[in-house]
Specification:
Layout: H1 2-20, H2 24-30, E1 42-47, E2 52-57, E3 61-64, E4 68-80, E5 83-94, E6 98-101, E7 104-107, E8 114-119, E9 122-127, H3 144-147, H4 153-161
Length: 162
């Protein structure tokens, strides 16, 4: 009877521990960062006491923010209050088909409306709102901004006069 009781207690503790383990999307806001920095396909993650982390995705993928962003299957870096440094595994598309590594992501503390991405020696300030929601991954980059044709002038005229 005592063995059955202690086994039941052990399973209860394990079930509580597993259900209370925070997702990576819950961890990022604790560091002042938006949860939508990572795609919805996180398979697992680890974070050490000093902030070193590894995030594993189901597969590499793309998300369209103001820019197209590539996520490798494995993302690593160092998480600290308001920033991710030593970042590996995230790239941004610029100048048509050129890809550049994102080295650091940081926000203002206390939080404001901006988020900053360091790509080489360049810092780019973006609106943080686009990173608040966790987004779905795409298998390939969206080419709609290159393939989208401008609206014909006669259609604009019609819209203005209706």
């Amino acid at each position: 009877m005592a063995v059955a009781s202690s086994t039941l207690i052990l399973f209860s503790v394990l079930a509580f521990w597993c259900s209370s383990a925070a997702t990576v999307y819950e961890i990022l806001p604790k560091y002042g960062l938006p949860s939508g920095l990572l795609p919805d396909s996180v398979k697992n993650y680890t974070i050490s006491e000093n902030g070193d982390f590894e995030v594993n995705l189901e597969k590499s993928c793309y998300i369209k923010f103001d820019y197209v962003v590539y996520y490798d299957k494995r993302i690593t870096g160092k998480l600290s209050l308001g920033s991710i440094s030593d970042l590996k595994g995230i790239k941004v598309q610029r100048f048509f088909f050129l890809w550049f590594d994102v080295d650091q992501i940081r926000v203002d503390l206390p939080p404001a409306d901006s988020i900053y991405f360091t790509v080489g020696i360049i810092d780019k300030e973006l609106d943080v709102d686009q990173f608040e929601q966790v987004r779905s991954c795409q298998d390939k980059p969206s080419l709609t901004r290159f393939l989208q044709l401008p609206t014909p002038l006669k259609d604009i005229e019609m819209l203005l006069t209706e």
